[in-house]
Amino acid sequence: MPIVDPRTGDPLSTPQSEASAAQADPSQYIVDVDMSNFQQVVLEGSMQIPVVLDCWAPWCEPCKSLTPVLEKLAHEYAGSFVLAKLNIEDNQQIAAQLGIRSVPDVKLIMQGQLYDQFQGALPEKQIRDWLGQYLSAPQDAEASPEEQAEAALADGDSATARAIYEQLVQDYPDYHDYQIGLASALVGEGRADEARALLDNLPPEHRDAAKTRGVRARIEFGEEAPDAEEIAALEGRDDSEARFKRALRQVADGRYEEGLEGLLALLKSDRSYGEDIARKTLLRVFDALGAEHPLTVTYRRKLFALLY
């Protein structure tokens, strides 16, 4: 796995080959460090292979959830980095030299230098992204819980996504994206009131975040869309009202591409319908999906081409 210098993007040369890293003994890449081996493992060792230094303490509750995640990733990377665990309670001199003020404190040491660091018990996906700036992820890496939840939502399996997000919320109560993900799963299960209550209880800075607005938009689509009986009554109709209601139902059901296509077609044929409601609804769907979603990118471009 190539190791890159984040400041230049160039590969860093290391005496240890990928093959020997892959065959490393787990005891060699997850190590408890103290005064007796800190120099050898962290400072000298980082000249050959990156070292992730996990500074923790027995009384630190967040450390108890973070360290197992770091150990799991160390096993997955199979020797592409060494996880060095430093108990600051037993090694206060080292902690003072490192300037540790609170734990957990995680530092990335490469070529004998501090390259990056973070504090607090970050979720697994964020730690993976952090490592990914410097190391290529192992090809056989297991999907993180958040990735599994997102995949379940994409497959329409809201119950599985909800179960995963509930556990993530329990493990990381201060990471509010997981609460937003849980709200999204609740919407998929038809539990809009619970989802809305969850979003309403978010801190003010998260209540109007893009992801939150997206979930709220899905709740609103579900409330506005015609039910199955009304959709059945529209069979055989191809007027603007029928086309709009079908598109709205498709969006509410999570069939976004069909709904977007229907709204775009309605905009082409009858832009004046409902005081330009097709265009306005397209913008609401973009908000629900998020600016980076592939469908948002594609259909925003189509909308721009149609209008201008």
UniProtKB/TrEMBL annotation:
<protein>
    <submittedName>
        <fullName>Thioredoxin</fullName>
    </submittedName>
</protein>
<keyword id="KW-1015">Disulfide bond</keyword>
<dbReference type="InterPro" id="IPR011990">
    <property type="entry name" value="TPR-like_helical_dom_sf"/>
</dbReference>
<dbReference type="InterPro" id="IPR036249">
    <property type="entry name" value="Thioredoxin-like_sf"/>
</dbReference>
<keyword id="KW-0676">Redox-active center</keyword>
<dbReference type="InterPro" id="IPR013766">
    <property type="entry name" value="Thioredoxin_domain"/>
</dbReference>
<feature type="compositionally biased region" description="Polar residues">
    <location>
        <begin position="11"/>
        <end position="20"/>
    </location>
</feature>
<keyword id="KW-0813">Transport</keyword>
<dbReference type="Pfam" id="PF14559">
    <property type="entry name" value="TPR_19"/>
</dbReference>
<dbReference type="InterPro" id="IPR017937">
    <property type="entry name" value="Thioredoxin_CS"/>
</dbReference>
<feature type="region of interest" description="Disordered">
    <location>
        <begin position="1"/>
        <end position="24"/>
    </location>
</feature>
<dbReference type="Pfam" id="PF14561">
    <property type="entry name" value="TPR_20"/>
</dbReference>
<feature type="domain" description="Thioredoxin">
    <location>
        <begin position="19"/>
        <end position="136"/>
    </location>
</feature>
<dbReference type="Pfam" id="PF00085">
    <property type="entry name" value="Thioredoxin"/>
</dbReference>
<keyword id="KW-0249">Electron transport</keyword>
